[in-house]
Amino acid sequence: MKFLFASVISLLFFSGYGQYNLQLNQVVLVSNTIQTVPAGKVWKVESYMQAGIAAPDMIEIGTACAYSDRHHPMIVNGQTYYLINGSPGHGSSGTFLAVGNLLPLWLPAGATLRTACTKDVLSVIEFNLVP
Asked: What CATH number matches the domain at 20-130, 2.20.20, 2.40.128, 2.60.120, 2.40.50?
């Protein structure tokens, strides 16, 4: 009897800590206007399309959108992140970049996201959190 009582209590206790299921809600395109992940949702950042690519190696980085030969960052919660997909290298400034920051990127409710440049766009899938 004690075992049955303990089992029922444990089951009730742990059932309140279950994980959520993800339900597709919509696809969101994020540009340079700050957008916030709504309550009860999560975002999966799938891709980042940078406008005006002209340089063959894309090694230089910078937030100046006038330079089409530079990596443009995305801004997550006010912090700048560069997506560097390729071999390490350096630009004329002697700045070395390491491979890292790959997509997808998951963002919880309350997180903010934007691009640095007007013509750039992030493709985001929004999911509802369903208990």
From this structure: 2.60.120
